[in-house]
Prior knowledge:
The structure holds 2 protein chains of 2 kinds.
Chain A: H1 2-12, E1 21-25, E2 28-37, E3 48-54, E4 59-67, E5 74-79, E6 102-108, E7 128-131, H2 134-142, E8 151-157
Antiparallel strand pairs in A: 1-2, 1-8, 2-3, 3-4, 4-5, 5-6, 6-7, 7-8
Chain B: H1 9-16, H2 41-47, H3 70-81, H4 95-98, H5 106-109, H6 121-124, E1 127-130, E2 152-156, E3 161-164, H7 170-185, H8 190-204, E4 218-219, E5 224-225, H9 226-231, H10 241-265, H11 274-284, H12 295-305, E6 308-309
Antiparallel strand pairs in B: 1-2, 2-3, 3-6, 4-5
Helix pairs in contact in B: 7-8, 7-10, 8-10, 10-11
Amino acid sequence: MLVATLLTMSTVGVACNVEDAHYRLRGVPYVTAQFRVTNTGPDWPAGVALELKMQRSGRSYWFIPWEGGTSDLRHMASVKDVSASNWRPPDPDRAEDRPLGDLDYVGTDTHYNVIGRVPHRGGAAPAHMLLLNLGDVLKHRVGEQLLPQQFFDLVSCIKANDHRR
Amino acid sequence: MPPYYKLSPAFIAALLDPKKKASPPDPSSAPDLPERDFTPLEEILGERPAPVSPPPSATRPEPQLNLPTIGDVWDRMQAQRGSISGATRAATPSTQDLLPRRPASSWDAIGLGEATPNADPNKTLGATRDDSFGTSPHFGMPDGLQFIKGPTTYSTAGGHQFSTLEALKPVQLSTASSIVDYGRAHGFPDNVTQVVLNQAAYESSLGRLTSNSGNSSVTGLFQYDQPTWNQRGHSGVRTSDADQIAAMFRDVGGFSTRYATGLANGAIPKGVTFEQYVETKHHAGSNSTSWDLYKKDYDRKIGRFGLRLVPKKPRKVI
Lengths: 165, 318
């Protein structure tokens, strides 16, 4: 299993586009993630949204990547379900538009070199992602089971459906 | 008018006391005057009538208070610092004498330290220091004592002026001058130029810390990284100081529109100032809403620089 995963990662680590990448939280197979092409508007130029699926509860949480300016940090803003027909990107100045606030994000290549940019539509998918405060946010904001602070690993690269409207 | 000697208190006391024999003052107390015979008091009084009316009951001179002069204080301070002796002090301080002196401290690590020794800001920069607008040097003081600093005003190559609480290094002066000149030349309001000036002070200590060894992706006066540069649609060369200044003015201009809108529709809390907004958006990202995350650090560093534009003088209408 591990060998298969590593082989998959090595083959898709560079060639896989962000919107085709599928991830799994290390050690917690029922937590998966994938990017969806989304019309995020000019204030959120990533053009993708991350869907985090909790397979056990059946719930999904959505996040939009954003650059952290000269701090050289990167983040993901919590948003409502981007697949809803009336979904609109949040006001970039209104904190209340982010149901779970912001997550601190770190993306790396297969050698764990940090990628100095958030995932964006058409870009190369990170091999690993770390959402530093995800477990704490999910436990204390929505009562999910506490997740370990671990990497999301790229496990497959499959052409995904767009959420463009 | 004939030259005259200063009369020492002891000499005057002796004149007033008939029991004591008057002796001429010590000529060595006036080394700049040519040697000559003692000038009688009558002659002096004849030329310069001055009411010298001794108190009727005075039999001994009043006790003299030996208050230290400013020069004495200066000598003492320098002696404590061990940097120069009292003999090297010039009667009139030079411009270098007026530059702030301060022991090395943690301020230096963030670029707020003493000016580079032997650097002549008037020669190498597009700006000059103008002491006529008020200079309050921040001398190195003995422990427990501290002067309250006042601003020093500089003139830019474009003929504009700004003041700061810190003595600027050449590169800092050049950066600040370029920003002030750009803002004025392009018609930006002074409050926008002021924000850009402060941003350069916060992000790179006015161009003194433009490279970041711990983070190779950000660089320049305003520490732009490539994603931010691209996201905001800036052309030009990211590593160019001139292009970064133009980009920052453009960003701040755009932020001013967003700020006004956000404040009006309630997205931005009312307590968030425009400068705080710009700092948040530039440093933490244009989608950040962490208004207070960097406020304390920003206020502390910017407060030490104390950069202020000198308002333009209105033209006289004839």
